[in-house]
Amino acid sequence: MHILILGGGGREHAIAWKLSSSKYCDRIFVAPGNAGTAQIAENVPISPVSFADVADLCREQSIDVVIPGSEDALVAGIVDELPRATGLQQIQIVGPSRNAARLEGSKAFAKTFMQRYGIPTASYRVFQRQEIEAGKAYLRNHPMPVVLKADGLAAGKGVLICHDPDEAVAHLEAMLLHEKFGEASRRVVVEQYLVGVEVSVFLFTDGQHYVVLPEAKDYKRAGEGDTGLNTGGMGAVSPVPFVDADFMKKVEERIIRPTLQGMQQEGCPYQGFLFLGLMAVNGDPYVIEYNCRLGDPETEAILPRIRSDIMEMLLLARQGRLQQVQLTVSEQQALTLVLASAGYPGTYRKGLPIRLPTSVPEGCFLFHAGTARQEGSIVTAGGRVLAITSLGKDLQAAKEKSLKLAGEVDFEGKYFRRDIGWEFL
Ligand code: AMP
Ligand code: GLY
Q1: Residues in the ligand 1 pocket, defined by CB under 6 Å
Q2: Atom 3 of ligand 2 has which residue's CA nearest to it?
Q3: Which terminal Cβ of the chain has fewer Cβ within 10 Å, N or C?
Q4: How far apart are CA 93 and CA 272, in angstroms?
Q5: Using CA atoms, how far apart are residues 290 and 251, in angstroms rounded to an integer?
Q6: Could you read off the pLDDT of 308-322 as tens digits, one per residue?
């Protein structure tokens, strides 16, 4: 089969690496890819959201399966649009339809959906521009902290946690009246602040049946001790020590099954990967957010633990046989470090040469994120440059291996968090 992966980050490199050992995959294309995917697949310099270009590529290279890595193409409706293009009626696109992707694309939709189906989540209200006065009054009476969320996609920046009412009111005005996050903040979800431990749970579903993938915990803040600005994610661990069978049973009963049944009832059954961003509050799971794709860098932590061929899972789903899938997952602990460019998540330089280790030890994985090839050498091309994952008998062992390998990578301004997994060590 010919596979096309859309995206060019660490997640897409990890997916390409995983599929490169599948007996079902003959050729793998990545658009646009990075210097790492170029070593194991064929990069094509097109944008995942240029559907006409994607369609041309699918025809030219006889693509059988398309795997969008990030949410943008899915929220824009690639699953609805691509099969309408000439010659592509049979193509399989791994992900939800445009309507089902609203679980991520509209936080207001996700919240009202959860309310309709009794799925545990923080209490909330949604406000639009003309309701600004009601919103301000609501904030003045709301316990602090309070969470403001832009309704639409805001590149991971649309969530604000406010500690005093004046600050919250100012942000609400900026979002609703001055389009602080553009179109995305024309509606704002105001949400109760939940205190607990976060965990990311992933599943793959055909709309009815599902396979739970290994869970992970992501470290979003730029600085050690969970300080500094929010990033796309600076590291991850998998498994997450507090997640046990009892917790996962609650997640399945209270969240996964009602979500899949609810989406069927809404007339838009959810297919593809689903990422549940959860808060465990006194041992009970609450949904912080849904994402319609895998996480980055969580994917770099979970895929090295999965022993099964995930391409087989995708193909069985297509045949309506997902119930037959039994994943084999390594008991080993994975710990991922992201090596970032100085300045990230703000502005940073690109095009700096990267020195990579001459070899990567057994049980370690070096995934490229923001890298590119320039005149025969590899240079930085993004804020998150590389993701290093190690498997070990425990977190400490995995951490030592990842730190050692991180020390062998060199580029100007390289920074990373040395405390990934801190609360479990
Ligand atoms: P998101 O962009 O939706 O992933 O949110 C960014 C981060 O904000 C999450 O990872 C949480 O750490 C935090 N967050 C979002 N919603 C809440 C909430 N209701 N209570 C506490 N923290 C939250
Ligand atoms: N690491 C969080 C995300 O992928 O959204």
Answers
A1: 122, 147, 156, 159, 191, 193-194, 198, 220, 277, 288-289
A2: 295
A3: C
A4: 9
A5: 13
A6: 999 999 999 999 999
